[in-house]
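Running low. Any example?
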Amino acid sequence: MTTLILATRNAHKAREIQAILANPRLALRQLTLKNFPAAPAVVEDAATFSGNATKKAVELARWLSQFQISNLQLEAGAAAFVLADDSGLEVDALQGAPGVHSARFAALDTGETGNSSDAANNAKLLRLLQNVPVEKRTARFRCVLALTPLIVADRESASPVCAADAFELRTELFEGACEGRIEAAPRGTGGFGYDPLFIPSGHEQSFAELGEATKNLLSHRARALSRLRERLMAIGRASQA
């Protein structure tokens, strides 16, 4: 069985990932950072989604491999990976903003640390788009997943820098995007983040109205996870050969 450690403490995100990856053909044990309360916080200061996802996956994989590998109780020959994602909303009329700053979009104006509330982020987005006509409110959700295998760092190299490089060299990226537009006011009570404002292409309901099952077929994260699922199945087949 493959073990996957999700590099998140966000219950909404973890539940979404777990639901999308659920497949009877995929023997997968999924853990989150709630299983590792001492895991270090990672500063997401990269300029791209792929940079942030890679940084989170590599730093957590390195920490787990150094300090927690025995606690994972891995089966003989079983693979173990860290999965990190960075995702956000890109609005064309705002030159791609909020982008990598999606979670703390409102906080950029106040200098506060940490993520902003969904309500504050949505309010700022609507304020910036208040004079933008509906046909120019095109946007997309984008997600990049980073999959990093656990390795025992001190077997790779005595140098911490070289060990970090070893993790990064083994990291694989999977990307997904969902095109749509931004509505003039929030709609629906489901989902999280910008879901009440985002109408995916081909639909007239927001992500917050469509429901979890439908969103998990359409979303940027679902599309990236679909590519990841195929990779994990290939890894599983190889381990059984």
About this structure: The CA atoms of residues 38 and 63 lie 10 Å apart.
